[in-house]
Design goal:
The complex is a heterodimer of chains A (about 240) and B (about 400). Chain A contains seven helices and seven strands; from the N terminus they run αααβββαααββββα. With about 240 residues, chain A is α+β, with helices and mostly antiparallel strands. In chain A, a hairpin with a 4-residue loop joins strand 5 and strand 6. In chain A, helix 1 crosses helix 2 and helix 2 packs antiparallel against helix 3. In chain B, strands 1-6-7-5 form a four-stranded mixed beta sheet, sandwiched between helices. Chain B is elongated and about 80 Å long.
Chain lengths: ~240, ~400
């Protein structure tokens, strides 16, 4: 159980040990922060018909936010993958890999990675199986990226994928973490061996769903008081009611 | 239709034109021309007479021939009977209405708007012959006239007085347009001038037996802007006897009135955040039925934020709007902000046997015009010529 009362799963405890609850909250906060920063980029762009100014910087922002929040968790370290322009967080030898899988309500299990998939992604996620053998990622992350080592790493299940959907208007719609395998790099097909939804991220500032508040019109709507006139009414008023 | 039918129709029309001539009302010709948005020269050319002749017809110096009357009816899209005297006709000069801005509005468009209000009054008058409408309940209003000395000259104080008068002393006003209608004001929301309606903007007049407020559909895309506009026009009605269209001081006063009516200073202060948090302002706006823009202005007005923060807030809001992150809510989802009084009155009269066709005949209007003013959609399928382009 974490401090907000959410149950910490057995899977998370196996992957991250005692820091699992803290890490889960940090990941959710990192995604909310990443959204906030990407939103600023989007708003600053003043682009009306595209959200590219949100999605493109998000590719980098997500890593920075993850380093800032998840990297501060007890026992976390920050690493530089070879061939990647960004940093990743590793906790107890397990790398957290963020993936914005959709901008809408697409089910996460139906989402595909942009394809063809980048080398780093392919190396990190290709052929991953939930395994118990803990191998070092150092050779890949800091060494030469030997294909045999990469295969071994992938098979060892050393990567936890943080998958989330977000857009400028709605904020972070859904976020998950789990064991994902890239089964077809050409087509971006992903298979989830384990998937767990993360608790709701922090509230999205300045944009998002309509505010949950009592609306101004939440009051009875009074009908106009109308009645048919009687002939007597008309004869009483006759003679002075118009401006001919 | 056979040639015999056509001849009979033609004869009927000629007889109508001849009978209308005996009661020809020059003011109706002017009204029809204004409604059509045409200049005298344009109508004269269509009818095939010199411009001076049309001027003489409108001044009553001379009268058109029956065939010319038919031409006029055709050119101005009204029935020939439209030109007959005998129906209530409240004259409204365009200068007697509060137009917000004259920059984008041509004289023809303002005349068209004034003629539209005349028609709104005629329709109201026809319905009031049958249906008892709510009495006009404005401070100082009696016998068709508004005594403005009954209200404080200060716009904010006048707004507070109106709230007191209408028993709306605390909290948000939930249904502003309905509240105005239930107090006997006539409010309309139609594209009375087609695509030019947006240029005319909202306006109002208290020169008729019932005050009329005309709201325009372009502002109805945003319910908060729509409500502010309605409150702004109420301000003009109550504060400004002498209309000075687009006078910046009158416009400012009407804005102050609207802000105080919708968000009274003493009540809203406690709800405003200490800094310009747009999300927090959005929630306050949803609670009070006002835009974030007006709340940003209110924050500065009440000294809650600095001038620099105020400017940054607007800039930020503009950016959010541009990128579609602060979408406006159209008025359609708010029945209390859509006028219904005239439509409801007709519905009641219809239940007692009045038909649209009868009412249109009484007013001498084309049926589509009556539908437009009543806010009744024409459900009949549209007929179009298809096939060869001949």
């Amino acid at each position: 159980m974490d401090r907000d009362g959410h149950e910490v799963s057995r899977w998370a405890r196996e992957r991250f040990g005692a820091a699992a609850g803290q890490l889960r909250d940090a990941v959710a906060a990192a995604l909310a922060e990443a959204h906030r920063r990407a939103l600023s980029a989007h708003v600053g762009s003043e682009l009306r018909r595209t959200t590219r100014a949100y999605g493109m910087p998000m590719a980098d922002i997500q890593h920075d936010a993850m380093v800032e929040y998840a990297g501060a968790v007890d026992g976390a370290e920050v690493i530089h993958p070879i061939g990647g322009q960004y940093r990743l967080v590793r906790v107890r030898g397990v790398v957290l890999y963020p993936w914005r899988y959709a901008a809408d309500a697409t089910p996460v299990r139906e989402a595909r990675m942009a394809h063809p998939v980048s080398d780093v992604r392919r190396h990190l996620l290709g052929g991953a199986q939930p395994g118990s053998v803990q191998l070092s990622l150092d050779e890949f992350l800091e060494g030469g990226g030997d294909p045999d080592v990469l295969t071994a790493l992938a098979e060892a299940g050393q990567v936890v994928t943080v998958a989330y959907a977000s857009n400028p208007g709605a904020g972070v719609l859904r976020a998950y973490w789990g064991d994902a395998e890239l089964v077809d790099g050409q087509r971006g097909l992903v298979m989830w061996h384990y998937l767990e939804e993360l608790p709701a991220a922090a509230p999205v500032p300045e944009a998002g769903d309509p505010p949950a508040t009592t609306r101004f019109d939440a009051a009875a709507l009074e009908e106009p008081t109308l009645s048919m006139r009687r002939p007597a009414d008309l004869s009483r008023e006759a003679g002075g009611d118009d401006q001919r | 239709m056979t040639s015999g039918d056509r001849r009979a129709d033609r004869l009927r029309l000629a007889r109508t034109a001849a009978s209308v001539l005996s009661t020809f009302d020059p003011a109706r010709l002017t009204q029809a021309r204004h409604l059509a948005g045409l200049s005298r020269a344009a109508v004269a050319e269509t009818v095939g007479v010199p411009g001076a002749t049309l001027g003489q017809w409108e001044s009553g110096a001379t009268v058109p021939r029956p065939d010319q009357l038919e031409e006029l009816a055709l050119a101005l899209d009204v029935p020939v009977r439209f030109f007959a005297a005998g129906r209530p006709h409240a004259r409204l000069d365009a200068a007697a209405a509060h137009f917000r801005s004259l920059r984008a509005t041509s004289t023809a468009e303002r005349n068209k708007a004034a003629a539209y209000v005349e028609q709104v009054w005629e329709l109201t008058c026809a319905l009031e012959q049958r249906v008892q409408l709510p009495p006009v309940d404005l401070p100082g209003f009696a016998a068709g006239e508004l005594a403005r000395d009954r209200l404080p000259a200060d716009p904010a104080a006048a707004a507070r007085e109106l709230r007191r008068h209408w028993n709306l002393e605390s909290g948000p006003i939930p249904h502003l347009v309905r509240t105005m209608e239930n107090r006997g004001l006539i409010v309309t929301l139609t594209s009375f001038a087609g695509s030019a309606t947006a240029r005319v903007d909202a306006f109002s007049t208290a020169r008729l037996p019932r005050p009329v407020v005309v709201l325009t559909p372009d502002r109805a895309n945003d319910v908060y802007r729509h409500r502010f506009t309605a409150a702004h026009e109420l301000g003009h009605l109550l504060l400004h006897d002498n209309t000075a269209p687009a006078d910046p001081e009158q416009e400012r006063e009407a804005d102050v009135f609207a802000a105080e009516l919708l968000t009274p200073r003493d009540q809203i202060r406690a709800h405003l955040p200490g800094r310009l948090d747009l999300n927090a302002l959005r929630k306050v706006g949803a609670r009070w039925g006002v835009s974030v823009d007006s709340l940003i202005y209110r924050c500065r007005d009440l000294g809650i934020v600095s001038e620099a923060a105020y400017r940054r807030g607007y800039q930020r809001l503009r950016q959010l709007r541009v990128t579609g992150l602060f979408p406006a809510e159209p008025v359609d989802g708010y029945p209390g902000e859509v006028p219904c009084l005239l439509g409801r009155a007709f519905g009641l009269a219809e239940g007692s046997g009045l038909s649209l066709r009868e009412l249109a005949a009484e007013l001498a209007w084309p049926l589509p015009r009556l539908r437009l003013l009543l806010g009744i959609e024409d459900s009949r399928p549209e007929l179009r010529l298809v096939g060869n382009d001949w």
